[in-house]
Amino acid sequence: ELCFNDKVYHLCIQNVMAFPQDYAAMMTRMMEIREIPKVVGIDIGGFTSDYLLMRSGRPDMDYCDSLEKGVITMYNKIISGINSEYDILLEESDIDSILQGNTEFYEEAVVRMTEGMVQDFVKDLLNSIRERGIDTKAAYTVFIGGGAKLLSHFLEQSDRLGKYTFIEDISANAKGYDRLFQIM
User: Fold this and answer.
1) SS3 sequence of 122-174
2) Rounded to the nearest 5°, which phi and psi values hold at 143?
3) Is the pLDDT at 21 greater than 80, yes or no?
4) Average pLDDT value over all residues in the chain
5) Mean pLDDT of 160-176
6) How far is 52 from 119, CA to CA, in rounded Å?
7) CB–CB of 81/56 below 8 Å?
8) Angstrom distance (rounded) from CA 63 to CA 170
9) Going edge to edge, which strands form the sheet with 38-44?
């Protein structure tokens, strides 16, 4: 029971479904994914990066997990490193600006260090996934989420990727969950 705008609503939830992380967003590309032997979805979020391996369109739950490697943890590391090295207090918006190529407002050394730390973050993330038995050079990689979009330039420069794509639709999870619900 809940009250909204001075009106009381009584709700009864009858059907609940749970799906692996990343699965819903990848459902929006299922026509293409189901034909590929190995696809790994990587959703880079604020505090975590979640991954799921799909084999010919089916989730392999032995390769599904959440890593404590998100863009907020990356921001915090960069902010701390820049403060320690240059006594400059960057904000997340400054880091976003640098990552989007608006570097003219920052010292060159700060830009270089920030970009280097982001490259290290991307390398570490992809290495962590490889350590869990998924080679992103041998699997088609689908990047999901705002973090992936923010880091796209650095991901594209990585030598740890084979074929890859980005799902940039911010409604991909909602659309995928709707599709999964309709299928079920």
Assistant:
1) HHHHHHHHHHCCCCCCCCEEEEECHHHHHCHHHHHHCCCCCCEEEECCCCHHH
2) -90, 135
3) no
4) 95
5) 92
6) 23
7) no
8) 24
9) 58-67, 49-55, 38-44, 140-144, 164-167
